[in-house]
Amino acid sequence: MRLHICRWITILAVFAGCGLAAAKPSVEQIGPGLYAYISDNDASSNSTFLVGHNGILVVDTGLNFIEGGKLLGAIRQVSRLPVEFIINTHYHPDHQGGNGVVGHAAVVITTAFTRDRTLALIHNPQMKSFQFRLANVTFQDQVTVYLDPYSVDVYFPGKAHTSGDAVVYFPQQRVIATGDLFLNRSCPAMDNGSAENWIHALNHMLQLPLEHVVPGHFELGTAADLRRFRDYLSDLFQQVKAMKERGETLDQVRHDVNLGKYADFRQYPNYEATFADNAAVIYRQLQAH
After folding, report:
1. In CA terms, which of 83, 87, 179, 268 is 20 to 30 Å from 1?
2. Domains of the chain with CATH codes
3. Rounded distance, CA 159 to CA 90, Å?
Protein backbone atom coordinates (compact mmCIF):
# COMPACT_ATOMS: atom_id res chain seq x y z
CA MET A 1 0.00 0.00 0.00
CA ARG A 2 1.18 3.51 -0.69
CA LEU A 3 0.63 4.42 2.95
CA HIS A 4 -0.46 7.92 3.84
CA ILE A 5 2.27 7.92 6.42
CA CYS A 6 1.06 10.83 8.55
CA ARG A 7 -2.42 9.32 8.84
CA TRP A 8 -0.89 5.94 9.63
CA ILE A 9 1.34 7.43 12.35
CA THR A 10 -1.68 9.15 13.89
CA ILE A 11 -3.53 5.83 14.06
CA LEU A 12 -0.58 4.17 15.79
CA ALA A 13 -0.15 7.06 18.18
CA VAL A 14 -3.76 6.62 19.28
CA PHE A 15 -3.31 2.87 19.65
CA ALA A 16 -0.14 3.43 21.66
CA GLY A 17 -2.14 5.07 24.41
CA CYS A 18 -5.01 2.65 24.66
CA GLY A 19 -5.52 -1.01 25.47
CA LEU A 20 -6.95 -3.08 22.63
CA ALA A 21 -6.27 -6.46 24.22
CA ALA A 22 -8.97 -9.08 23.81
CA ALA A 23 -7.08 -11.96 25.46
CA LYS A 24 -3.72 -12.74 27.02
CA PRO A 25 -0.72 -13.04 24.73
CA SER A 26 0.22 -16.64 24.07
CA VAL A 27 3.71 -18.13 24.16
CA GLU A 28 4.38 -21.44 22.44
CA GLN A 29 7.62 -23.35 22.18
CA ILE A 30 8.06 -24.14 18.49
CA GLY A 31 11.49 -25.74 18.47
CA PRO A 32 14.61 -26.25 20.58
CA GLY A 33 15.12 -22.97 22.44
CA LEU A 34 12.62 -21.16 20.19
CA TYR A 35 9.33 -19.54 21.17
CA ALA A 36 6.54 -17.75 19.32
CA TYR A 37 4.90 -14.83 21.15
CA ILE A 38 1.45 -14.18 19.67
CA SER A 39 0.24 -10.71 20.63
CA ASP A 40 -3.22 -10.12 22.06
CA ASN A 41 -3.29 -6.67 20.43
CA ASP A 42 -4.02 -6.41 16.70
CA ALA A 43 -2.14 -3.10 16.62
CA SER A 44 1.05 -4.72 17.95
CA SER A 45 3.21 -7.30 16.24
CA ASN A 46 3.94 -10.87 17.12
CA SER A 47 7.48 -11.71 18.23
CA THR A 48 9.83 -14.67 18.18
CA PHE A 49 12.57 -15.33 20.70
CA LEU A 50 15.44 -17.78 20.76
CA VAL A 51 17.14 -18.79 24.01
CA GLY A 52 20.75 -19.86 23.62
CA HIS A 53 23.31 -21.01 26.17
CA ASN A 54 24.33 -17.48 27.15
CA GLY A 55 21.75 -15.08 25.79
CA ILE A 56 18.52 -14.42 23.91
CA LEU A 57 17.67 -13.20 20.40
CA VAL A 58 14.32 -11.48 19.77
CA VAL A 59 12.59 -10.81 16.45
CA ASP A 60 10.35 -7.71 16.70
CA THR A 61 9.37 -6.14 20.01
CA GLY A 62 5.82 -4.82 19.66
CA LEU A 63 4.21 -1.42 19.52
CA ASN A 64 5.47 0.53 22.55
CA PHE A 65 6.65 0.31 26.16
CA ILE A 66 3.43 -1.43 27.22
CA GLU A 67 3.60 -4.12 24.56
CA GLY A 68 7.37 -4.43 24.90
CA GLY A 69 6.93 -4.88 28.64
CA LYS A 70 4.41 -7.66 28.07
CA LEU A 71 6.83 -9.39 25.74
CA LEU A 72 9.74 -9.04 28.16
CA GLY A 73 7.57 -10.46 30.94
CA ALA A 74 6.81 -13.48 28.77
CA ILE A 75 10.49 -13.94 27.97
CA ARG A 76 11.35 -13.80 31.66
CA GLN A 77 8.91 -16.64 32.32
CA VAL A 78 11.23 -18.75 30.15
CA SER A 79 14.72 -17.40 30.85
CA ARG A 80 16.59 -14.76 32.88
CA LEU A 81 19.44 -14.58 30.36
CA PRO A 82 20.19 -11.19 28.79
CA VAL A 83 18.63 -10.18 25.49
CA GLU A 84 21.73 -9.94 23.31
CA PHE A 85 20.18 -9.39 19.87
CA ILE A 86 17.04 -7.77 18.46
CA ILE A 87 16.14 -8.18 14.80
CA ASN A 88 13.52 -5.79 13.41
CA THR A 89 11.73 -7.06 10.31
CA HIS A 90 10.85 -3.55 9.09
CA TYR A 91 10.50 0.07 10.20
CA HIS A 92 6.83 0.21 11.23
CA PRO A 93 6.51 1.16 14.92
CA ASP A 94 4.30 -1.81 15.81
CA HIS A 95 7.34 -4.05 15.20
CA GLN A 96 10.05 -2.03 16.93
CA GLY A 97 8.37 0.38 19.35
CA GLY A 98 9.36 -1.87 22.28
CA ASN A 99 13.06 -2.16 21.45
CA GLY A 100 14.20 0.00 24.35
CA VAL A 101 12.20 -2.02 26.87
CA VAL A 102 13.01 -5.50 25.61
CA GLY A 103 16.72 -5.00 25.04
CA HIS A 104 18.15 -1.69 26.20
CA ALA A 105 21.70 -3.02 25.69
CA ALA A 106 21.02 -5.48 22.85
CA VAL A 107 22.62 -5.33 19.43
CA VAL A 108 19.84 -4.26 17.05
CA ILE A 109 20.01 -5.68 13.53
CA THR A 110 17.96 -4.73 10.47
CA THR A 111 18.28 -3.56 6.88
CA ALA A 112 19.94 -0.25 6.09
CA PHE A 113 16.63 1.00 4.65
CA THR A 114 14.80 0.24 7.90
CA ARG A 115 17.43 2.04 9.96
CA ASP A 116 17.12 5.14 7.79
CA ARG A 117 13.33 5.17 8.03
CA THR A 118 13.49 4.62 11.80
CA LEU A 119 15.78 7.61 12.17
CA ALA A 120 13.11 9.73 10.49
CA LEU A 121 10.44 8.36 12.84
CA ILE A 122 12.53 9.17 15.90
CA HIS A 123 12.50 12.84 14.91
CA ASN A 124 8.69 12.85 14.51
CA PRO A 125 7.08 14.45 17.60
CA GLN A 126 4.14 12.02 17.40
CA MET A 127 6.53 9.14 18.06
CA LYS A 128 7.62 10.13 21.57
CA SER A 129 5.78 7.26 23.29
CA PHE A 130 7.64 4.62 21.26
CA GLN A 131 10.75 2.96 22.66
CA PHE A 132 12.83 2.99 19.48
CA ARG A 133 16.45 1.91 19.38
CA LEU A 134 18.34 2.40 16.14
CA ALA A 135 20.11 -0.57 14.61
CA ASN A 136 23.76 -1.05 15.55
CA VAL A 137 24.23 -3.45 12.64
CA THR A 138 22.69 -3.26 9.17
CA PHE A 139 22.98 -5.49 6.13
CA GLN A 140 22.18 -5.25 2.44
CA ASP A 141 21.54 -8.87 1.41
CA GLN A 142 21.93 -11.31 4.28
CA VAL A 143 23.63 -11.94 7.58
CA THR A 144 23.94 -14.93 9.93
CA VAL A 145 23.76 -14.44 13.69
CA TYR A 146 25.25 -17.09 15.97
CA LEU A 147 23.64 -17.68 19.35
CA ASP A 148 25.40 -20.76 20.70
CA PRO A 149 24.37 -23.50 19.93
CA TYR A 150 22.10 -22.08 17.21
CA SER A 151 22.44 -20.02 14.05
CA VAL A 152 19.91 -17.56 12.63
CA ASP A 153 19.78 -16.57 8.95
CA VAL A 154 18.49 -13.07 8.20
CA TYR A 155 17.99 -11.91 4.63
CA PHE A 156 16.47 -9.16 2.52
CA PRO A 157 14.05 -10.67 -0.05
CA GLY A 158 13.86 -7.53 -2.19
CA LYS A 159 11.05 -4.98 -2.16
CA ALA A 160 7.88 -6.58 -0.86
CA HIS A 161 5.80 -5.25 2.05
CA THR A 162 8.26 -2.35 2.38
CA SER A 163 11.48 -1.52 0.57
CA GLY A 164 13.57 -2.96 3.40
CA ASP A 165 12.03 -6.10 4.88
CA ALA A 166 14.08 -8.61 6.83
CA VAL A 167 13.10 -12.30 6.90
CA VAL A 168 14.42 -14.43 9.76
CA TYR A 169 14.94 -18.18 9.32
CA PHE A 170 15.87 -20.58 12.12
CA PRO A 171 17.36 -23.60 10.29
CA GLN A 172 17.79 -25.91 13.29
CA GLN A 173 14.12 -25.40 14.24
CA ARG A 174 12.72 -25.15 10.68
CA VAL A 175 10.87 -21.96 11.57
CA ILE A 176 10.59 -18.65 9.74
CA ALA A 177 9.58 -15.26 11.17
CA THR A 178 8.15 -13.24 8.31
CA GLY A 179 7.22 -9.85 9.73
CA ASP A 180 4.30 -8.48 7.71
CA LEU A 181 5.25 -10.42 4.59
CA PHE A 182 2.73 -12.94 5.94
CA LEU A 183 -0.41 -12.29 7.98
CA ASN A 184 -2.45 -15.34 8.84
CA ARG A 185 -5.86 -15.07 7.16
CA SER A 186 -5.69 -11.31 6.71
CA CYS A 187 -5.33 -8.71 3.99
CA PRO A 188 -1.97 -6.98 4.44
CA ALA A 189 -1.23 -3.30 4.54
CA MET A 190 1.01 -2.51 1.59
CA ASP A 191 3.76 0.05 1.96
CA ASN A 192 6.04 1.30 -0.81
CA GLY A 193 7.21 -2.13 -1.89
CA SER A 194 6.41 -4.53 -4.72
CA ALA A 195 3.48 -6.94 -4.74
CA GLU A 196 5.00 -8.85 -7.65
CA ASN A 197 8.28 -9.44 -5.84
CA TRP A 198 6.36 -10.11 -2.61
CA ILE A 199 4.88 -13.18 -4.32
CA HIS A 200 8.39 -14.30 -5.35
CA ALA A 201 9.57 -13.81 -1.75
CA LEU A 202 6.78 -16.03 -0.46
CA ASN A 203 7.61 -18.66 -3.07
CA HIS A 204 11.19 -18.68 -1.80
CA MET A 205 10.01 -19.14 1.79
CA LEU A 206 7.84 -22.07 0.73
CA GLN A 207 10.93 -23.84 -0.64
CA LEU A 208 12.50 -23.89 2.84
CA PRO A 209 11.94 -26.75 5.29
CA LEU A 210 9.17 -25.35 7.53
CA GLU A 211 7.60 -26.65 10.71
CA HIS A 212 6.10 -23.32 11.81
CA VAL A 213 5.63 -19.83 10.38
CA VAL A 214 5.44 -16.84 12.75
CA PRO A 215 3.37 -14.14 11.03
CA GLY A 216 3.63 -10.43 11.68
CA HIS A 217 0.17 -10.52 13.25
CA PHE A 218 -2.44 -13.07 14.28
CA GLU A 219 -2.20 -16.79 15.01
CA LEU A 220 0.83 -19.00 14.47
CA GLY A 221 0.90 -20.42 10.95
CA THR A 222 1.97 -23.46 8.97
CA ALA A 223 3.41 -23.83 5.49
CA ALA A 224 -0.17 -24.41 4.29
CA ASP A 225 -1.26 -21.08 5.78
CA LEU A 226 1.69 -19.33 4.15
CA ARG A 227 0.85 -20.96 0.81
CA ARG A 228 -2.76 -19.78 1.02
CA PHE A 229 -1.62 -16.21 1.72
CA ARG A 230 0.72 -16.49 -1.29
CA ASP A 231 -2.22 -17.73 -3.35
CA TYR A 232 -4.27 -14.71 -2.29
CA LEU A 233 -1.62 -12.25 -3.41
CA SER A 234 -1.00 -14.18 -6.62
CA ASP A 235 -4.70 -14.43 -7.49
CA LEU A 236 -5.22 -10.74 -6.77
CA PHE A 237 -2.17 -9.73 -8.79
CA GLN A 238 -3.30 -11.73 -11.83
CA GLN A 239 -6.84 -10.34 -11.64
CA VAL A 240 -5.65 -6.74 -11.41
CA LYS A 241 -3.12 -7.22 -14.21
CA ALA A 242 -5.80 -8.69 -16.52
CA MET A 243 -8.30 -5.92 -15.72
CA LYS A 244 -5.71 -3.21 -16.30
CA GLU A 245 -4.78 -4.77 -19.63
CA ARG A 246 -8.49 -4.63 -20.57
CA GLY A 247 -8.44 -0.91 -19.87
CA GLU A 248 -10.38 -0.84 -16.61
CA THR A 249 -9.95 2.23 -14.41
CA LEU A 250 -8.71 2.15 -10.84
CA ASP A 251 -12.25 2.55 -9.49
CA GLN A 252 -13.46 -0.29 -11.69
CA VAL A 253 -10.65 -2.54 -10.52
CA ARG A 254 -11.40 -1.80 -6.87
CA HIS A 255 -15.02 -2.77 -7.48
CA ASP A 256 -14.51 -5.77 -9.75
CA VAL A 257 -11.94 -7.92 -7.93
CA ASN A 258 -13.47 -11.28 -7.04
CA LEU A 259 -11.89 -12.86 -3.97
CA GLY A 260 -14.77 -14.85 -2.54
CA LYS A 261 -12.60 -17.86 -1.73
CA TYR A 262 -10.71 -15.65 0.73
CA ALA A 263 -13.87 -14.43 2.47
CA ASP A 264 -12.48 -15.48 5.85
CA PHE A 265 -9.59 -12.99 5.57
CA ARG A 266 -9.63 -10.10 8.03
CA GLN A 267 -9.89 -6.66 6.45
CA TYR A 268 -8.91 -3.37 8.08
CA PRO A 269 -10.07 -0.21 6.28
CA ASN A 270 -8.29 1.93 8.88
CA TYR A 271 -4.95 0.46 7.73
CA GLU A 272 -5.99 0.53 4.06
CA ALA A 273 -5.86 -3.26 4.26
CA THR A 274 -8.86 -4.55 2.32
CA PHE A 275 -9.27 -6.46 -0.93
CA ALA A 276 -10.01 -3.20 -2.74
CA ASP A 277 -7.07 -1.39 -1.11
CA ASN A 278 -4.66 -4.19 -2.04
CA ALA A 279 -6.00 -4.15 -5.62
CA ALA A 280 -5.47 -0.39 -5.83
CA VAL A 281 -1.85 -0.68 -4.74
CA ILE A 282 -1.14 -3.37 -7.31
CA TYR A 283 -2.83 -1.27 -10.01
CA ARG A 284 -0.66 1.73 -9.18
CA GLN A 285 2.49 -0.38 -9.13
CA LEU A 286 1.65 -1.75 -12.58
CA GLN A 287 1.01 1.78 -13.81
CA ALA A 288 4.46 2.83 -12.62
CA HIS A 289 6.21 0.14 -14.67
Report:
1. 87
2. 5-223 (3.60.15.10)
3. 11
